[in-house]
Amino acid sequence: MTTTLVRRRYSGLSPSHKSSFFPGDPDLARRLKARIAGEVLFDPFSRGRYATDASIYQIEPLGVVVPRTADDVRRTLEVAHHAGAPVLPRGGGTSQCGQTVGRAVVVDVSKHLDRVLAFDAGARAVTVEPGITLDRLNAFLKPHGLWFPVDISTGDRATLGGMAGNNSCGTRSLRYGTMRDNVHAIEALLPDGQAVRFGEIPWDADLGRLSAPLGPLAEKLFALGAREADEVAARFPALMRRVGGYNIDALVRDAPASGTLRGHNRAAANLAHLLVGSEGTLAFTTALELDLAPLPPHRALGVCHFPTFYKAMASTQHIVRLDPSAVELVDRTMIDLARAIPMFRAAVDQFVRGEPEALLLVEFAGEDRDEQLRGLKRLSELMGDLGLTDSVIEITDAKLQRDVWDVRKAGLNIMMSMKGEGKPVSFIEDCAVRLEDLAEYTDRLTAVFRKHGTTGTWYAHASVGCLHVRPVLNLKSEIEVKKMRAIAEEAFAMVREYKGSHSGEHGDGLVRSEFHQPMFGSRMVGAFAEVKGAFDPEGRMNPGKIVDPPRMDDRTLFRYPPGYATKKFETALDWSEWGGFAPAVEMCNNNGACRKRDGGVMCPSYRATLDEAHVTRGRANALRLALSGQLGRDALLSDDMAEAMKLCVGCKGCRRECPTGVDMARMKIEVLYQRARRLGVPLRDKLIAHLPRYAPVMARMPWLMRLRDRIPGLGMLSERVLGLSARRSLPKFAADPFDLVRDAPVAPVGAQSHDAPIDPAAREVVLWVDTFDTYFEPENARAAVRVLAAAGYRVHLAKPDDGGRPLCCGRTYLAAGMVAEARAEAGRLLAHVVPFAKRGVPIVGLEPSCLLGLRDEIPALFPGDEAKALAGRAKLFEEFLAEEAAAGRLALPLKPLPKRALLHPHCHQKSFGVVSAVERVLRLVPGLRVETIDAGCCGMAGAFGFGADTFDVSMRMARESLLPALAQAGADDIVVADGTSCRHQIADAAGQSAMHVARLLEQSLTENRP
Ligand SMILES: Cc1cc2nc3c(=O)[nH]c(=O)nc-3n(C[C@H](O)[C@H](O)[C@H](O)COP(=O)(O)OP(=O)(O)OC[C@H]3O[C@@H](n4cnc5c(N)ncnc54)[C@H](O)[C@@H]3O)c2cc1C
Ligand code: SF4
Ligand code: SF4
To answer: What is the pLDDT of residue 990?
Structure first.
């Protein structure tokens, strides 16, 4: 095929929505594979995963390259150059305007190109590869008292390359400016692969002496800057928050500074500033030289209360004169949303007084603590002058300051978690106007929303006149799309009236580039095209962004284009909360929070692999495309889908930490069920799933299972035949499993009937002992019985009404997608415990994944009141005790234990917010110092760690954070882990033993029996 032909084939923005994604161009894939060491992903699933970003758009890429080195990037550009194929650089893919989607070879630098290349603390300078995230860079800098101060809210997953690409800006831009103000130089590759360092060039330099390709390029650009100086002065809004178009003002000598331009050298042009904000349309960044700032040691926060939103907006211009580092808006809707979340209510009560219509969070930061306190005082005086005496809550406590910022972020998350077809849509959400126009502008825009029958919640960067607002629209509807366009046109016309900026933070992409014409005028748009032509004459770098854009409301480019529909089918679980399985999947808006690599749990498989395929977002995208038929027939049941789901450990991290509550653990059960129904269940999965049924028999010959670990060769055999890793020890059946009769509590004697009336004097509790604790670690159950009895509870052991084998929740069946069997198991449990629950008796369990399933999967298996009643009463052992202690009802005789307890919480304990309950219960032990390990998933996750094909990833997960933390444990420390899998992993991988909290309490009882 000739280059011309290929070029014609690849040109333009072809609509993404054919009936399905076809395999990518095999010839291009082959040529790339021959040249690079990294991954070349041209299969439909991979291309589907890279067809979206956090915008409303979807475009099928030609293919994906994940380069291992900068040299791989160069080779990719060379291959694409010869093939005439467009190229699209990509970091975290968190762009909101569609700048990271396109019919191109997408090159994802976030996996491998994330190193710090050079660092000079004295010069406050660092050089990094483009794929490093902001938070990782700042973690590196922190010990040196430095930071990179463009503090965007996606810092945990946004890359420096992407931040430069979009000219990102953070909460404290008032002080530190935008990316442009903080990038010193950029090393980049031109579209044909030639390397250039873009940095300062003195205005009076002899450009002819610079070597090619920089010299001739600089000559063109300097000439363009000189020619367009007047146009830039006339057309560029005099605002820091102007990120639209190319930064042509960087080419204009003595152009008025639009940002803070920290350390700006007026004697030189900085060509890196032209690349900043160019959205991957000019060159491919391979390294960034950044200017750093000292970390301010002292911060003080004033929370200003306003009786009206208008007053808050009108006051901002006065407040910024006090030299704060941030002024952020939180409106009434957000306050109410935050108040509705139990975990934030206490903090909100501390910093919100009464019922204000808006808050401005005003931060002062710097070296001198007294100076920051004086800032607060001046703020109170100013508010008094504005007629708002006694309206500032002053916060100097660092923890409460953090809580305030967390609440602001959480409000946004709640807003984004709106269920149903209408969603807050990002398209005018970062217009910026002068502060003196802010009140009138927000007032008028609110009226525009009203006129179109919608609303928007306002928040964010009041200090720089850049407020976020997302009108709620259903973009699956043609009428609502028309509304979006009308709102955009009216909003931008208004912004033009105010000489404001239509693109003030998130970039241009597909949603805004079209409006450069009315906002900047034809001459400036022509100049943008000239810049593009100088760098990329063939127009192959991220086409359709900034120059030559399509219409922003071209629905064929939407994630939900005309004709988008999902297949209806019978589901195993109840998805009515979301309006069905597909709407639950569509909750993923691609914001990429699941790509964070530190803190919390979500998403262990991503942290271990750094693959887009193995992050919650990648799975949600694969599911959405499959359900809507875009990955071909029966894609939901395909091996590719099974592969995409395989590394999901069902940790439920996403259920809690995903801002929109995407619950992939539950979705995986549904997918496994659908697959099992059609294709059956693999032998290994069946073997593990049926554990509750064969455990009573196996328990009579515990030696049998141990043979596999003892007789040489049996491990390998079980690996080959059953797929159980030979490198993993199997759980050991106890010689003396928990026995519901023999191990029943002796005193006080429980009335073993659910019909018995509650005795108000002796509080009742049902203890349900799961399969794992019954057969593998009965000592936990016995400890729980003793502790509960010692505290004076009447303990009923949950027993099957039919007198058969012990009760089980069906978790092992759910994990294999064997939903009918799970329902049968759980049905037996429900039959016995629901009557107790209906009487208000707590149902207590020990194993987090089993007990918390009663609040999660079981109600989804049994929609109706019975399961709901149980869910309301099901409590983990530690939750029950913590609640009893808080109510002053717990009398547990415990002796001192002067040791340190290192707590590793189970992922489901984190997901259900019950970690603090374990901590509180452990603190009941006098003298025990409790420290919670800040680690993600242990990697064992039920049967996951036993799989021969998942063992390595399981160990990588453990090595991510748990094992390093455990390595710090002293010989005297007690490791506490309530999850049976966690304890197994800790024993296998760290060689340490961990115990359930029940056992630790039992050992601390003053009258402990052996
Ligand atoms: C919930 C949410 C909150 C956000 N908050 C903020 C905020 O507070 N402030 C803010 O400014 N933005 C914000 N954003 C937008 C976005 O997160 C930022 O623009 C971020 O910097 C993008 O980083 P990324 O790594 O995801 O880049 P990507 O989205 O992957 O890429 C961004 C652009 O840079 C280009 N690019 C990437 N790598 C390179 C490279 N190596 N060479 C050349 N070009 C490259 C891409 O082609 C693309 O045009 C938010 C987004 C979301 C979803
Ligand atoms: S799964 Fe959740 S966190 Fe991840 S991209 Fe989707 S919405 Fe964001
Ligand atoms: S359940 Fe855990 S592993 Fe699975 S997608 Fe969610 S966070 Fe990732």
So the answer is: 95
